[in-house]
Amino acid sequence: MSAADGAAPLVARYAGPRPDPMYHVVLLAMCSGVLVLAAVLSVRNQSQVVLPILGLPLPELCLARRLTGWGCPGCGMTRCFIALMHGDWLAAWRYNPSGIWLFALMAAQIPFRAIQLWRIRRGLPELNTGWTAQILLGLLIVLMLGQWVLRAIGLPI
Fold it and tell me: For the chain, which residues make up each domain, given as ranges?
């Protein structure tokens, strides 16, 4: 049937690979969960992450620090996120400067994934970020390793 036969024309739909909404739901939930936990947890004595109400410190998670005594490039990331959620930018920088950028990338995932889910529900193609995501991830890795090396050789940052 064609439009000339009186039938309604078909609406063109995106014909690319079928998007996976669960991928976006999982990333949205993970990023939201991390930010909510960062808002709820607190830091005591600049070294211990503490559970609210109970006041119990969480165990140190860094295996590298436990085995070698040396922190890894991600050491301080949890405390950095907590400090950022509590508005303490200076403490966040001291805990892990690259954590500020990771926090920003994670926070940006919440509206981005919500928009992606909205587009999928309406039959629209997902937004394509091209190489942006890979470049930002590469930059984050360079920043993490860079700040780790600078701290390891004793330079204050």
Answer: 18-117+131-152
